[in-house]
Amino acid sequence: MIMDLCRENLAGMRDLLKDGEVSAVDLCRAHLNRIAERKSLNAFITIDGERAIDAARTADKRKQAGEETGLLAGLPLAVKDNICIDGQPTTCASKILDKFIPPYTATAVFNLLNAGAVIVGKTNLDEFGMGSSDEHSHFGPVKNPHDLSRTPGGSSGGSAAAVADFQVTAALGSDTGGSVRQPASFCGIVGLKPTYGAVSRYGLTAFASSFDQIGVLTRSVTDCEMVFRVICGRDEHDATSVRSIYPDDYSGDLKSAGRMRIGIPTEYFGEGLAPEVGAIVEKTIEELARDGRAIRKISLPHTKYAVAAYYIIANAEASANLARFDGVRYGTRVDSGQLSALYRESRSQGFGVEVKRRILLGTYVLSAGYRDEYYDRAQRVRTKIIGDFEDVFSSVDLLVCPTTPTTAFKLGEKLDDPLAMYLSDIYTVPASLAGLPALSVPCGTANGLPVGLQIIGPRFAESRLFSLATEIERLAGHRRTGV
Amino acid sequence: MAITPEDILHTARLANLALTAEETERFSRDLEGIMAYVDLLKQVDITDVLPATCLSQGRNVFREDRVVPSLAGDKIRRNAPDWYRGMFRVPRVIG
After folding, report:
1. In angstroms, what CA-CA distances link A298 with A285, A291, A383?
2. Among B14, B16, B79, whose Cβ lies nearest the Cβ of A367?
3. How confident is the model at residue A163 (pLDDT cuts 50, 70, 90)?
4. Statement: A1-298+391-483 belongs to CATH 3.90.1300.10
5. Residues sharing a CB contact under 8 Å with residue B22, sequence separation 6 or more, in sequence order
6. How many CB atoms lie within 10 A of CB A301?
């Protein structure tokens, strides 16, 4: 019974609650039990069972009193541990934020709580979101529920593993260069990176501010849409966020899915793509064509420069954003006789190896003599990449491609080769550079491991993404395998 | 291009990081590999291309100018490694 409850999706749980078959407290307990049973996956950094049960009890009381409840009333969710919740530790999986208790709540979480959601805990990640395997966590690596010797992807690996493993039904993640989509693909679930500006980042620890977006990980497209609907919209605390133009009802787009023109970027099917991944993605595209979709090959000629441009710009921004961690106001402080030594020692002992590598890279490309050669050039290449997308979206409505070049790789496989790790983001960084919405939806398995298909759309075309993803979810249904 | 341990140490000073000898050696090797890869960008013709500076709506956004409560002082204090009479205390800087 308990396991069955955890296997429901959000919509199913909502029905069970509505019919009074279970209480929010039952749901919360079932998930807390599952989390405890599956502790070895290391998906969570903190679990606050008591607070969650209290929130569930409140949801039950409100329902019994006949009060109007929100879209997510009584439903258990998790939040990536780089997103702040007032009074609950937020570590960013870093030693430098040891014992940090945020004094405020992120807007996205505030919106979840407002909709009645029950937050069960904070999920593991690569330190400050910097990584593609969840191995760069001060709290140890996360394991992929499909194969415990493999990575769940990163940096939202804890969120992805928890959702795929039925420890929670939905989770927030954050996506800078693919950190929601890649783990969703590796774990066989749905992951959305919204349009830059669609969701407020207030309370999300900044990594690279011109890329960062809070995203959603779920087991179904409907659930993803439901959570996105709750968290999107303008927030005066984030000047990049815009008034929600998200439709009240995406079924209009759902109906028009048949008329959508789908572009297939040839650059995403070349060298580096594992044949077994390419085969299943191409098979899905053939099925879409058989269903009458207009499919056309297109070109995004600057794709091969995306990873290089991304790692320059993102790490330049990171080196500036992470300057705030200096041991003075919060977090780890290493006492020293001199202020300059206090900064240096607190940072050196507080940051992990990948964070230091990226801060150095970012500082290097911004330093005197190199700024024009690297940072400025990368920003101009970024303009070319944005232009590629603008050109193709004048003739197609959506793009379809693999989310990742391979299925989940082995833990430890790329740990000593940072460049190989960075190149695993090759299909996710272009949409990040252009600020476009992109969603990964499972489209089958290769050698028993999940394969994700990525849908990229023009700015604020989330409803279009959901409608095509629903179609792919249906097509792939017969090929899906659970954990 | 070659990235020497001296380059790494200079960059680390700018970034307020102290590196061990092992880290210095490792990062100079890593950064050399990464910078060799990003040289790929030199193939792109960027004549007359402007840098991408803004991904959102491209116009300034003003918020209403009104008084709102500050963050709660006790919550700030709770996180402070060293707190003294409403201030963050650090080692003496001047004389």
Report:
1. 14, 20, 19
2. B14
3. very high
4. yes
5. none
6. 15
Share of chain A above pLDDT 90, in %: 87
Does residue B31 sit at the A interface (CB-CB below 8 Å)? yes
Catalytic (active site) residue A179: yes
Return d(Cα A170, Cα A164) in angstroms, integer: 9
Residues ≥6 apart with Cβ < 8 Å to A278 = A269, A402
A78 contacts A172 by C-beta, under 8 angstroms: yes
Question: Residues A386-435: pLDDT tens digits?
Answer: 999 999 999 999 999 999 999 999 999 998 898 888 898 999 999 999 99
Q: Do A344 and B52 touch (CB under 8 A)?
A: no
Task: Supply the pLDDT for residue A481.
Answer: 46
Structure tokens at B60: 């300034």
> Token match 């999706």: residue?
A9
One-letter amino acid for residue B11 of the chain: T
Region of A67 please: left (phi>0), alpha (psi -120 to 50) or beta. Answer: beta
Residues of B in contact with A100 (CB under 8 A): 79
Please identify which residue in the block is written with the tokens 């009193």: A65
Q: Which of A194, A203, A290, A175 is nearest to A242 (CA)?
A: A194
Confidence check: pLDDT of A247 > 80: no
Give CA–CA dist A137/A91, Å, rounded.
Answer: 10
Report d(CA A317, CA A359) in Å as an integer.
9
- Give the C-alpha separation, A199 to A196, whole Å: 8
Low-confidence ranges of chain B (pLDDT < 70): 56-59
Please report, for chain A, the start and end positions of each structural domain, with discontinuous segments joined by +: 1-298+391-483, 308-372
Rounded distance, CA A209 to CA A193, Å?
15
Q: Is the peptide bond before A149 cis (omega within 30 degrees of 0)?
A: no
pTM higher than 0.90, yes or no? yes
For chain B, which residues make up each domain, given as ranges? 5-42
B5-42 sits in which CATH class? mainly alpha
Which contiguous run of DSSP H or E holds residue A283? helix A275-290
